[in-house]
Amino acid sequence: MAKIKVMLVEDHNIVREGLKRLMEMEEGIQVIAEAATCREALEQLKPDTDVILLDIKLPDGDGLDLCKEFKKKLPGVRFIALTTYDDALFIKKALESGVHGFIPKYASFDEIKSAINITMRDGHYLYPGLNVEVIMRLNESSLTEYEMQILRMMAGGATQKSIASSLYMSISTLRRRITGICTKLGVDTVEEALATAAKKGLIR
């Protein structure tokens, strides 16, 4: 079975070295790159990287901004945030920035290993103890009433042209709004947005 190729981005050398040594003892995981800063991370990124274990706060920048740069280069790479922040609002922001997993620095190595494996298999991982319902409610409330109106009109079968006309906006503006709705709901298409909104009870 192919090993999961991991990149470690962590500015504390002792933490990074410790994680690297523990991972090297695992048969299914291989550390192929490491960095201590945003600049080093961009320089050291390998095209075959599967997972990036990423410290959110780095000496020369924000790890969440780094996620966006990485996604441009490797759209399929998975991100697991390694951080001291564990409040729901911060986690929501991390998820919206493209993070697939979230691990606090006080987590055990077994939890970190689980995060890597589960993220590769299922797409997302939230460490035990995180109140998932809080995150779901935050995601729902992030939709504005204007966006909810667009969702309801789409659910009712209205075309983009008729929605744009009703709301006095251009088609291009409406499409940007729809893209924003999809991003907030964590989906890629209008169909997925409608299905997700219906599942959450936001529309009927």
UniProtKB/TrEMBL annotation:
The modification 4-aspartylphosphate is found at D55. GO terms for molecular function: DNA binding. Keywords: DNA-binding, Phosphoprotein, Transcription, Transcription regulation. Residues 5-120 form the Response regulatory domain. One of its GO terms (biological process) is phosphorelay signal transduction system. SMART domains: HTH_LUXR, REC. PANTHER family: TRANSCRIPTIONAL REGULATORY PROTEIN DESR, TWO-COMPONENT RESPONSE REGULATOR. May play the central regulatory role in sporulation. It may be an element of the effector pathway responsible for the activation of sporulation genes in response to nutritional stress. Spo0A may act in concert with spo0H (a sigma factor) to control the expression of some genes that are critical to the sporulation process. This is Stage 0 sporulation protein A homolog. It comes from Desulfocucumis palustris. The lineage of its organism: Bacteria, Bacillati, Bacillota, Clostridia, Eubacteriales.
